[in-house]
Amino acid sequence: MSDIVDNAGKMSVPLVSVCVPVYNVQDFIEECAESLFGARMADKCEFIFVDDCGNDSSVDKLKSVIGRHDGIDAKIIRHEKNQGLAGARNTGIKNARGLYIAHADSDDSVRPDFIETLYNTAVSTNADLVICEAGQYITDTDAEAFIRDERLKELVLRAQKDGNGFTSGENERIGMIRLLLQHQIPASIWCKFARRSLYEDNKIDWKNGINVGEDVITSVKLLFHSKKTVVIPNELYNYRKFIGFVMKLRRGTFFRQKELEFTEIRKFAGEKGFYDKISDVIELRNAEIKYEFLKNESPLSLRKYDFMRGQKLRVLCEARSDFNKKSTRALVRLIDKNHFFLANMMYFSYRILSSLRKKQVAR
């Protein structure tokens, strides 16, 4: 694909728009911006930083980095008031002019070939969507063991090997969505490189107010509408496991946000007529979130175990060492044998003993 230039020989339309939300990341924003501006093909990109009204020195530091790179097309768009992560991402894509759109989080960084590899792959394969891997990306191996679909995994491996990706076949697109919901391919938006027209033609944006799991919703929509998706094994993005906004949410708030995420995915899948093909994966993920919410309760919680058993999650919980205590295993055996009266007696006895121990410690 040839560059688009104006009469003066300068690029009138950037090849790639890189969108970056910025909120209270003063310790990381300089490293992030330097990695983006130093990446190959950075001179053919525009970089859109969305200032979501943080209260630290992030923007001042960002301006300093931009000032050191005269040849870079970078701009900062400031919200009048905080709109959250979803709102910041929407502002980025609404102001993008590039033929393709990439994303980065402001506490992460990218590899030098991040832009170049994704762009060249998209052009050479005529893909609407390219998905890469990230360094330090954590996969949920327990969930994979529980619901792994080896046929779909093999499909990904073949697509990576021959470079042809996935075509517009509905079964393949739904298969990709299943893999994403199983976390067998990255769900985060910063691993997705897409034509801008894919967003615009299908009116894909982020749901305002959903700031946890918002990437998953958007990724499902991109995968569904993409006529050709290519998955490459290259680790092009440096993910930082950072205790930031999402991790600091109260458990109740986090749980409500995840409920909104799953509600939105169900709604979209229902409207497009493929909910029945992914309902088992969605419900498993939804159940896992609910279990995590209950997890901080007493390990002997009957309510937690009953929920877990009903959602077929026992194998996950055992793999995560939640059933190491002898008393817990004894309780589980009683429940499995339908000795509910004895189980309840044991449970309430345990709760009384725990309460007495806490009082003794407090003294």
Q: Structural class from helices and strands?
A: alpha/beta
Strand order of the largest sheet: 3-2-1-4-7-6-8-5
**Share of β-strand residues:** 5-15%
- Oligomeric form of this entry? single chain
Order of helices and strands: EHEHEHEEHEHHHEHHEHHHHHH
Give a short account of the largest sheet: 8 strands, mixed
Explain what you see:
The chain has an eight-stranded mixed sheet with strand order 3-2-1-4-7-6-8-5, with helices on both faces. Helix 1 links the parallel strand 1 and strand 2. The chain starts with 15 loop residues before the first strand and ends with a helix. The protein contains 15 helices and eight strands.
Summarize the structure.
This protein has helices at 29-37, 58-67, 84-94, 114-125, 141-147, 150-162, 170-181, 196-201, 214-225, 251-272, 275-294, 302-310, 314-319, 326-336, 340-362, and strands spanning 16-22, 45-51, 73-78, 100-103, 109-110, 129-135, 192-195, 229-238. The chain has 363 residues and is an alpha/beta fold.
Topology:
Elements (H helix, E strand, L loop, with lengths): L15 E7 L6 H9 L7 E7 L6 H10 L5 E6 L5 H11 L5 E4 L5 E2 L3 H12 L3 E7 L5 H7 L2 H13 L7 H12 L10 E4 H6 L12 H12 L3 E10 L12 H22 L2 H20 L7 H9 L3 H6 L6 H11 L3 H23 L1
Parallel strand pairs: 1-2, 1-4, 2-3, 6-8
Antiparallel strand pairs: 4-7, 5-8, 6-7
Helix pairs in contact: 1-2, 7-9, 7-11, 9-10, 10-11, 14-15
